[in-house]
Design a protein that fits this description.
- With 205 residues, the chain is of the alpha/beta class.
- It has one domain: Rossmann fold (3-Layer(aba) Sandwich), CATH 3.40.50.150.
- It is 33% helix and 27% strand.
- The strands form two sheets. It has a seven-stranded mixed β-sheet, sandwiched between helices. Strands 1-2 form a two-stranded antiparallel sheet.
Length: 205
């Protein structure tokens, strides 16, 4: 889920009207266009932000084989399909909107992305179904203003593999003290226009 800012004016326009399409940046599906449907709360993460995030992930998780990833609020599926494009063994996309989930399945079939599974479900129900699986990377980009990010961060602890990473996106920076209370530490952070994005890891005791 996303936006496409190169400067503040672009970010402002993106917030009002998301782009008609975004693209997969790297891997076997590189340059594949993903159509952005006109759906409630669908807000694609900019290509530039995703490129930065996947550079971080490659640096931090490059030694891992057979990576498994979960995108809990999939939207366009850009994060999940990018993971699959770069060789992830398993990628689960969770999307509650029926039309959007149908579009994700259509893209999965078109690409022949066998590693990708699409679940149409509320995020809490999806977590209950997925437990006790573990994921090396979990993407959390719920609708802005929904209040979902904090409870989602609490809920995904049990599904994160040791040393795994959580991507969290929000319209404001996350408070370090609050993250620490939830058992997280910030590994990387960035900002593009009105998008704040973070990589988190479980705090070591």
């Amino acid at each position: 889920m996303n936006k496409r800012p190169r400067h503040s004016a672009t970010a402002s326009r993106s917030a009002r009207s998301p782009p008609g399409r975004i693209r997969i940046i790297g891997g076997q599906f590189r340059r594949t266009a993903i159509v952005v449907l006109a759906a409630p709360n669908l807000r694609p993460t900019p290509d530039r932000v995703r490129e930065t995030v996947f550079n971080w992930l490659e640096h931090l998780l490059g030694h891992r084989c057979g990576i498994c990833a979960l995108d809990l609020f999939a939207g366009t599926g850009a994060f999940g399909f990018e993971m699959a494009s770069r060789g992830a063994r398993r990628v689960v996309l969770v999307e509650n909107n029926a039309r959007t989930a149908q579009g994700l399945r259509a893209l999965q079939r078109r690409l022949g992305a066998a590693a990708v599974q699409v679940l149409q479900a509320d995020w809490r129900l999806a977590l209950a179904r997925l437990s006790p699986e573990v994921f090396d990377v979990i993407f959390l980009d719920p609708p802005y203003g929904s209040g979902i990010l904090v409870p989602a961060l609490d809920a995904v602890h049990s599904l994160l593999a040791p040393g795994g990473l959580v991507y969290a996106e929000s319209p404001q920076p996350l408070e370090l003290a609050h993250l620490a209370e939830q058992g997280w530490e910030q590994v990387r952070t960035g900002k593009a226009g009105g998008v704040y994005f973070h990589l988190l890891q479980e705090r070591s005791c």
